[in-house]
Amino acid sequence: MKTKHYLTLTDADVLMNRAIELSYERGFNMSISIVDDAGALMMMKRMDGATPLTAHLSLEKAKCSAMSRRPSKFYEDIIRNGQMGFLTLESVSGMLEGGEPIIYEGQLIGAIGISGAKAFEDADIAQTTICDFFQQI
Hey, how many other C-beta atoms are within 10 angstroms of the C-beta on 14? Predict the structure, then answer.
């Protein structure tokens, strides 16, 4: 029998607080979503001034990363390179940069999706948040 690692609510809280802190430091009004390994929502916050659309996008980016175990940018790049068939998938959306899987000891434990700035800035905050989280444990 194997041991399965997973995000706790406390872990999601730590991730959320760090993502919000980084967003404030960089002057962005973001929406941040954290999902478990199955893509189910654990926590979402929309900062003051963030548009309602960013809340939807952050969740979809997180779910895309959780379901695929890849950064959501992977799919954005595939589509940009002409593989438009991915746009027909009803079960997967959020194929835009800003979603990052959270992998611990080779196991997917969740994902974070961020929206509200330029795509590369969303992704950078997500990546930094995950890196900082793992440095604390």
Answer: 18
Q: Report the alpha-carbon distance of residue 61 to residue 72 in Å, rounded.
A: 6
**pTM score:** 0.93
**DSSP annotation string for 15-72:** HHHHHHHHHHHHT---EEEEEETTS-EEEEEE-TT--HHHHHHHHHHHHHHHHHTS-T
d(CA 79, CA 68): 15
pLDDT for the residue 133: 98
Q: How far is CA 75 from CA 15, 50, 87, in A?
A: 24, 25, 10
DSSP 94: -
Residue 81 is predicted with a pLDDT of: 87
Domain map of the chain by residue range?
9-136
Q: Which CATH superfamily is domain 9-136 in?
A: Haem-degrading domain (3.30.450.150)
Q: What distance in Å separates the CA atoms of residue 6 and residue 90, rounded to the nearest whole number?
A: 27
Rounded to whole angstroms, the Cα distance separating 92 from 112 reads 16
Q: Is 107 helix (H, G, I), strand (E, B) or coil?
A: strand
What six digits make up the tokens of 68?
A: 């695929």
Report the alpha-carbon distance of residue 31 to residue 44 in Å, rounded.
7
